[in-house]
Amino acid sequence: MGMSVSDYLVFRLQKLGVKEFFGLPGDYNFNILKSIENNPKTSWIGCTNELNAGYAADGYARIKGVGAVVTTYGVGELSAINAIAGSMSEFVPVVKITGVPDTKFIKNNTLIHHNLNTPDYQAFIKAYSNIVETTTFLTKENAKKEIDRVLEILIKEKKPIYIALPMDVCNATINETYQEIEQKSDEINLKEAIKCATELINNSNNPAILADVMIKRFNAKEEFYKLLQKSNYPVTTLLMGKDLISNNESLNYSGTYVGKFGNPEAYNSINNSDCPIFIGTVISDINTQGFDLKFNPNDYINIQGNYCVIKNVLYKNVLMKDILNELAKVIPEKNSKKSDFIYYYQNVEKKERLSGEYFYKKLQDFIEEGDNLIFETGIVNLALAKLKIKKNVSVNNQVLWGSIGWATGATLGISIADKNTRTILVTGEGSHQLSAQEISTMMRNNLKPVIFVINNKGYTIERILSDNPLDKFNEIAKWDYSKLPYVFGKNVYSTTVNTCDELDEVFKNVKKEQKDKMCYIEVSLDMFDLPELAKLAIAGDKLDKLAL
Fold first, then answer.
1. DSSP 3-state assignment of 265?
2. Do 24 and 97 contact (CB within 8 A), yes or no?
3. Rounded to the nearest 10 degrees, what angle do helices 221-231 and 320-330 cross at?
4. Rounded to whole angstroms, how far apart are CA atoms 521 and 129?
5. How many CB atoms lie within 10 A of CB 547?
6. 423 has which bridge partners?
7. 3-state class of 358 per DSSP?
8. Each residue of 109-143: pLDDT tens digit?
9. Over the stretch 518-539, which tens digit does the pLDDT of each residue have?
10. Spatial distance between the Cα atoms of 328 and 226, rounded to a whole number of angstroms
11. What is the pTM of this model?
12. At how many degrees (to 10) do helices 5-15 and 30-38 cross?
């Protein structure tokens, strides 16, 4: 018994949860696409360009655990490379599959289309080797072993991998048997880590927890909740881990950590702690609001996906799930006072002209339990910090890599991955212009996300970062956004809102229309209508000095 190499690759990915593959066709990947279409449990989602396909695979993987994007050699794979770099940056397991020319052309170094003027069949895999966890160039001899190897790395490290698959190798026959991927902690390191962590916590007076997105990436939410419930320690989350705890859960939760720019309860709980416990944290500039964290490395615990650092000692091969599960059994409960501070949008004044604060307050009320939210990088991501999150809401953003345009493509992937759940996208119009054509793919696949395009007349995040917020290089083309989706299809409810009353009416209409149609709303705001966090953390007094 056996199956072709491309059939085996598709089969293995389907077993890992990949039911839909994103990408574009090209003559070098036809055999791969046929394997996808011939597998009764997988299907092909053709996108408008490879970059968007990569974004879609990234969004899909955030929901399903693994995503896959297929392109042709050279021109296609280089178009997707930025998306895969983002997946690498944010620990999103995406399989990048490239269909490459026949082995005979590679061996003879033949100059054929999609190649450099001086042929180099290793050039593009070399490029990808810098932005994925591992790469492989399949041959008839190594295909089985290499597919199994790179997929094991994908699952264990939660990072993207790259596979180059020549046309002729696709059809080679290999054995279809495989071993399930097992993940285990090093027992000695695990026991030592638990002992050290427990001693540190027992000797502390006010331990506190700072949680973040790697808890989601390494599938440790259940173990994380057990620890919170057992310990009753104060807990706050960074922006990337916004959805780890809902505001209506009975936990000692003080909301999103935004440094010194707001939410003093969260700030003080972490920075005054004599034993801060970081779980799955990404310590980057935007995620921490300027690295505003004060702790002694000798007094803190840092638990990551497959390692931990306790009292400045590294414990390798310790899985987050395992150490959280064991700590929940032995961790002492503290009688920590529950936070009285409430950090979310409330009591926003209603005026005639629509404001960002009013929009986000109404959006907060509109969100329902179980929704999938996607927030674009830039201004809207900073607005997310104050949003009140309900139970089982999934928040998806790209804080670290921060590639504008990601969110629209990711919305396609998330909508495909979870067709039975409402998906809501909030994006700035500047970011949206990079990938808006993927709206057509959503409509083509009968998807019905609710999309809010915040039109504040240019690259607002760049304006407040610039020396002169009115520099012309931060201006963009003026689109009539509410008419845009009608270019791609008719099954859509679309409009523009300028006032608070219009927004109130639109939210009523969206609730009626959302089950049957895509809802696409242009939200018109003033140029320098900024979320509170953007004003405090970035703009400062710059706008006041310019009398804007």
1. helix
2. no
3. 20
4. 40
5. 5
6. 372
7. helix
8. 999 999 999 999 999 999 999 999 999 999 999 99
9. 999 999 999 999 999 888 888 7
10. 6
11. 0.96
12. 50
Total H helices, total E strands in the chain: 24, 21
Q: Which residues share a beta bridge with 497?
A: 523
Q: Would the pLDDT of 335 be above 80?
A: no
Q: Whose structure tokens read 């929901």?
A: 63
**SS3 of residue 493 by DSSP:** strand
Residues in the chain: 548
Please tell me the distance from the alpha carbon of residue 393 to that of residue 395, in angstroms, as a whole number.
Answer: 6
CB 122 within 8 A of CB 96: no
Q: Rounded to the nearest 10 degrees, what angle do helices 187-202 and 320-330 cross at?
A: 40
Residue with tokens 């039975």: 420
Q: Which band of pLDDT confidence, cut at 50, 70 and 90, is reported for residue 164?
A: very high
SS3 state at 259: helix
Three-state DSSP at 122 gives coil
Residue 290's contacts (CB-CB under 8 Å, 6 or more residues apart) are: 259, 537
Alpha carbons 193 and 327: distance in angstroms, whole number: 10
Say whether 452 sits in a helix, a strand or coil.
strand
Those residues whose C-beta lies under 8 Å from the C-beta of residue 253, and which sit 6 or more positions away, are 235, 236, 245, 247, 339
Which residues 6+ apart lie within 8 Å of 145 measured at CB?
Answer: none
Q: Which residues pair with 496 in a beta bridge?
A: 522
